[in-house]
Amino acid sequence: MPEHALAEAVALAQALPGLTVAGSEVVRVARATPATLFGSGKVEALKAVLADRGVDLVLIDGPVTPVQQRNLEKAWNLKLLDRTGLILEIFGERARTREGVLQVELAALSYQKTRLVRAWTHLERQRGATSTVGGPGETQREADRRAIDDQILRIKRQLDRVVRTRDLHRASRRKVPFPVTALVGYTNAGKSTLFNRLTGSEVLARDMLFATLDPTMRGVELPQGRRIILSDTVGFISDLPTQLVAAFRATLEEVLEADLIIHVRDISHPETAEQAADVADILQSLGVDAATPQLEVWNKLDLVDGAARDGLLAQAAGRPEVIALSAVTGEGVGALVDRIGAAFAETSAERRLSLPFAEGRRRAWLHDEGLVVAERQTDEGWSIDVRWTPRQEHRFRALA
User: Fold this and answer.
1) CA 245 – CA 236 distance, rounded (Å)
2) CATH architecture of residue range(s) 176-346
3) CA distances in angstroms from 22 to 5, 26, 73, 145, listed in the order given
4) Where are the domains of the chain?
5) Which of 31, 192, 214, 287 could form a disulfide with 100, with the two C-beta atoms 3.0–4.6 Å apart?
6) Nearest partner of 316 among 325, 327, 304, judged by Cα
């Protein structure tokens, strides 16, 4: 519903430090006006409202073309951000790791490159052919675009180095025989609060969109004595800007390494089903394998009362893959821990493999992944006992 989308947009705005929301409004547009998005009458009406409230920044929850942005800023005499611009601002404030900062810079430059059609005065000047760089008659816009391309290339090279380091860390983790469990979900579903509850950590957890941007990992020992690695990931959101999907793909790919995915839902949200569908679409687009086991957590049970709460508990009781809980109060968290332990007990199995000497690469892969329980050399090769999950077995078979 438009009202729920507006509420999310307001929450996005409130997530930006130093910004106070003076008001919000659903503006229905039957057909977008190419020059100004809104019709001329609505542009004038909004101008009066904005002036009356002393607004100096307008946020439009949707795509705004560079021409529309330029014309609206001129008509209203203030700055304007669309949904992509706002999310980039938030990500720029929140990124903490080197990789996160570089990803934000890359996304911002990709976005900025599309805005170079804006008629800033310096873009209208022609550069004279005072040097061989750019050639005679190159416009300032072309020079700016080339400068951005150079920056994008530089950042991509830096990211490649950071990603290689992260891949080395990931390879090291594979050698540790601890399965990885990834928390995923719509932004502000309560993943970080649940992560803190399960690990005893103090990761930033606030009632705020995109409180977590950089993935965080901690070891957790289950009551059954099994140790796992728990990963808290960036929250998903509907209509995520394409620049950010590309830039954060490497971060989200941590989910692809998971042996178990826990989808955390804000079950108190009026559009929780739609949010869950958005998360499922993003997981599918990332290439999450159907072989990876998943649990679904219905979080924020403390915000649901009466018959609605009883109904949710009854539904969850009938679905073994669903756990209803409150990460804030701790209700139901014990059941989740038991379910995680049971999931790994069910999925891990021992197998005996016979590998000929010619398959040394596959043998090395088993050792690198920490899956080998015992090994004996035979006349033909190796007899290897392994303990693995269906996902790990699938990856091994794919090496053939």
Assistant:
1) 10
2) 3-Layer(aba) Sandwich (3.40)
3) 17, 14, 18, 35
4) 2-90, 176-346, 349-397
5) 214
6) 325
How many C-beta atoms surround the C-beta of residue 275 within 10 A?
Answer: 23
- How do the pLDDT tens digits run along the chain, 400 residues long? 788 888 888 888 887 878 889 899 899 888 899 999 999 999 999 999 999 999 999 999 988 998 999 999 999 999 999 988 888 888 777 776 777 788 888 888 888 887 764 433 333 333 343 343 444 445 677 788 888 889 989 988 988 887 787 777 666 655 556 788 999 999 889 998 999 899 886 654 444 444 444 567 788 888 877 788 888 877 777 777 666 665 556 566 667 778 899 999 999 999 999 999 988 988 887 778 777 889 999 999 999 999 999 999 999 999 999 999 999 999 999 999 999 988 887 677 889 999 999 999 999 989 887 889 999 999 999 999 998 877 778 778 888 6
CA separation for the pair 363, 366 (Å, rounded): 5
Which structure tokens are listed for 245?
Answer: 């999907």
Give me the CATH code for the 2-90 domain, please.
Answer: 3.40.50.11060
Collapse the DSSP code of 334 into the 3-class scheme (helix H, G, I; strand E, B; otherwise coil) and give the result.
Answer: helix
